[in-house]
Amino acid sequence: MAQGGLIRCRLQNIFKAYEVQFQPVQNEDYWSTYIGPNLMPDLHMRHNKPGRRTTTRIHNEMNRSLPNKPKKCSFCISIGHNRSNCPNK
Ligand SMILES: [Zn+2]
């Protein structure tokens, strides 16, 4: 098919799409009454509470720190505490 014929085909499709008349949305008073389930939000599922969210992950032995490995601070390079509770900070 020639290039012009292809464009004409596409235009015909566009015209076909707009053949049907679009009805504007009527006033709300003319709407039919809705019969079906009324969905309500579960307020317990909302996450707009302050603070850290509780994890839902299942922890296994991979997540536990090794008990015989001494804590080493990356701030003052001393053993016995870590950076988050360093007394020299
Ligand atoms: Zn320290």
Percent helix range: 10-25%
Query: Can you write the helix and strand succession as a string?
Result: H
Secondary-structure-based class equals mainly alpha
Q: What characteristic shape results from the CA principal axes?
A: elongated
Describe this structure in words.
With 89 residues, the chain is mainly alpha-helical. 17% of the residues lie in helices and 0% in strands. The chain is built from one helix and no strands. The protein is elongated, with a radius of gyration of 33 Å. The protein starts with a helix and ends in a 72-residue tail after the last helix.
Write the layout of secondary structure elements.
Layout: H1 3-17
Main attributes?
single chain, mainly alpha, elongated, binds zinc ion, 1 helix, 17% helix, 89 residues
Brief digest:
The chain has 89 residues and is mainly alpha-helical. The protein is built from one helix and no strands.
